[in-house]
Amino acid sequence: MQVQLLKSKIHRVTVTEADLNYIGSITIDEELMEAANILQNEKVFIVNNNNGERLETYAIKGERGSGVICLNGAAARKAAPGDVIIIMAFGIMDYEEAKTFKPTVIFPDTATNKLIK
User: Fold this and answer.
1) CA quadruple 66, 33, 59, 6: dihedral positive or negative?
2) Residue 28 and residue 75: Cα distance in Å, rounded?
């Protein structure tokens, strides 16, 4: 049997931009993506703490160290700059592996979206 578990989580970052005219996705500071173990084009699930919206899209790399969190395309309707969101990615694994698997969870500074060292 296989189960789906949390693989990666960026807990509480602030949306810096919303670009309705972009093709789609969420742009995430490359440094945050690496720290959370999220890959370019990986499917992510986003929850908006300000309005309760939830959506699935894919991650694209933003400028390293910029703190950018930009919802693009239709996703831009789900959050506004200043909203606080949580970004998660899930993985599918065998049941036995899942028993001991530990997800990568990061807690950036919500005001700057920078990693807390």
Assistant:
1) negative
2) 14
Sign of CA dihedral 71, 73, 79, 81: positive
| Euclidean distance between CA atoms 58 and 38, whole angstroms | 10
Enzyme catalytic residues: 25, 58
Question: Tens of pLDDT along 53-112?
Answer: 999 999 999 999 999 999 999 999 999 999 999 999 999 999 999 999 999 999 999 999
Instruction: For residue 116, give every residue at least 6 positions away whose Cβ sits within 8 Å of its Cβ, in sequence order, or none.
Output: 107, 108, 109
Note the pLDDT tens digit of each residue in 2-45. Answer: 999 999 999 999 999 999 998 879 999 999 999 999 999 999 99
Residues near 37 by beta carbon (within 8 Å), at least 6 away in sequence: 7, 8, 89, 104
Asked if residues 56 and 85 have their Cβ atoms less than 8 Å apart, the reply is no
